[in-house]
Write a structure and sequence with these properties.
The complex is a heterodimer of chains A (about 210) and B (about 200).
Chain A (H helix, E strand, L loop, with lengths): L2 H18 L12 H10 L3 E2 L1 H9 L5 E5 L3 H6 L5 E3 L11 H4 L5 E5 L4 H12 L5 E4 L2 H10 L10 H16 L4 H4 L26
Parallel strand pairs in A: 1-5, 2-3, 2-4, 4-5
Chain B lengths: L11 H21 L5 H9 L4 H22 L15 H18 L3 H9 L3 H19 L1 H8 L9 H4 L4 H25 L11
Classes of the chains: A alpha/beta (about 210), B mainly alpha (about 200).
């Protein structure tokens, strides 16, 4: 048989198949709805105020707190070394290097954990990693870290240890100042993050 | 998930190494198919040998089908494939210059290296001409820049122009290619040269 005919017999059916099937438009590295639901159900995105407080006090360089409230709220009060990315602004390309990186541990927070969770979901759906949510948000933070409730003397040791840690943390982070001196912790400048290498397209030529 | 290098599955150096191996394979296949013969290459323009058309169009459609199937299976993300941007006038001008050089010299840039590797002196002369051309273009770039960058069209895709799916376009190109091969083989008989026997059976 002529090579041209063999070629035709092979390529025409393949061409017909590829013409008939829909194009694959799925993007890699994105989560399916099922996968996302699994993550939401297991709550792995939450990080407790105690863990965050410990990292803040030890000045853990891998921690990056991200305030997703509005800029006005951020001005009024924020946690130390926080950058402000309002939720409405989260898809702004300007912030992509902060929320799409693999160096730091990002912790989103808002007043409750609602907005932070929304921010997390959006970034997670985009396939970004290393983003977490401060459990209970700022309200819970103030309640547990800034004004911890003293356990009764009969509480188990862990409770008392936790209380002592929180009290110490609250003091280290200027606990009592929160309500009396708003704006005491001045918003810090954006920290410099080494830019993630942009994915370059494959180049080629004849 | 490809492309391998964009997704950091292989390093840039591994990529270069793979390119090296593929390049050797490419050169070997080119040479063993007679692409180091300037008569075979020039035959494309006179019609007595259309191997160039057949080989490169076959490569293009096989590659295109392969990419579309790989994309279908989720093995490659086509949005990362680099598409050469189109500067219309320099594409046309470059095509004319390249075609003229092809007929005059009997080689294209790739096949000239292929032929030089088996010791053909005309291919060496051709490569010398390439370097002269590169030098002239580089030195003359300020004069040519306006033409070079004129009519920038971005990276238009044929299937978007015709509003077809990629698969449909490829199917039509396959049909067109097979028709061209048929015309080519007809031309090989019609314009056959007495003293040219490489492709005549």
């Amino acid at each position: 048989m002529k090579p041209r005919l063999i070629l035709a017999y092979v390529l025409i059916p393949l061409g017909l198949i590829i013409a008939a099937v829909p194009e694959n438009t799925t993007k890699p590295y994105k989560l399916t709805a099922d996968e996302l639901l699994e993550e939401v159900k297991s709550g792995t995105q939450f990080i407790s105020p105690d863990e965050v407080a410990a990292m803040v006090i030890s000045k853990d360089p891998s921690l990056q707190l991200i305030d997703v409230r509005s800029a006005a709220e951020f001005e009024k009060f924020s946690l130390p070394n926080t950058i402000n990315i309002p939720l409405v602004d989260i898809l702004n390309p300007e912030w992509e290097d902060y929320i799409h990186q693999d160096v730091k541990l990002n912790v989103f927070y808002s007043n409750s954990s609602n907005n932070a969770n929304q921010a997390w979901m959006i970034t997670r759906q985009l396939g970004y990693e290393n983003n977490y949510v401060l459990q209970g948000g700022l309200n819970f933070w103030v309640k547990t870290i800034m004004n911890p409730k003293e356990p009764s003397e009969l509480s188990p040791n862990e409770e008392i240890a936790k209380y002592n840690f929180r009290k110490g943390a609250g003091m280290a982070l200027g606990g009592a100042d929160v309500s009396t001196q708003p704006g005491a912790s001045a918003p810090v400048k954006k920290p410099v993050i080494t830019k993630r290498k942009k994915k370059k397209k494959v180049q080629g030529g004849c | 998930m490809g492309p391998l290098i964009v997704n950091e599955i292989i390093s840039e150096n591994t990529n270069l190494f793979l390119a090296f191996l593929i390049g050797i394979g490419f050169g070997f296949v080119l040479e063993s198919n007679g692409f180091s013969s300037s008569r075979r290459l020039a035959g494309m323009f006179y019609g007595y040998d259309t191997t160039v058309l057949k080989v490169f169009f076959t490569a293009a459609i096989v590659g295109a089908i392969g990419l579309l199937f790989m994309s279908l299976f989720g093995w490659i993300d086509l949005s990362y494939i680099y598409i050469n941007p189109t500067y219309l006038w320099s594409s046309i001008g470059g095509g004319v210059v390249m075609g003229a050089g092809f007929i005059l010299g009997g080689y294209c840039p790739g096949t000239s290296v292929c032929a030089a590797s088996i010791g053909k002196l005309d291919a060496l002369a051709f490569i010398g001409g390439i370097f002269i051309g590169v030098f002239l273009f580089t030195e003359g770039y300020p004069l040519l820049e306006g033409f070079y960058k004129a009519k920038y069209l971005g990276s238009p895709l044929l299937n978007e122009v015709f509003n077809l799916s990629r698969g449909m376009l490829i199917f039509l190109i396959i049909l067109a290619a097979l028709a061209m091969f048929w015309v080519g083989e007809w031309a090989e008989k019609r314009f056959a040269h007495e003293d040219y026997k490489i492709n005549q059976k």
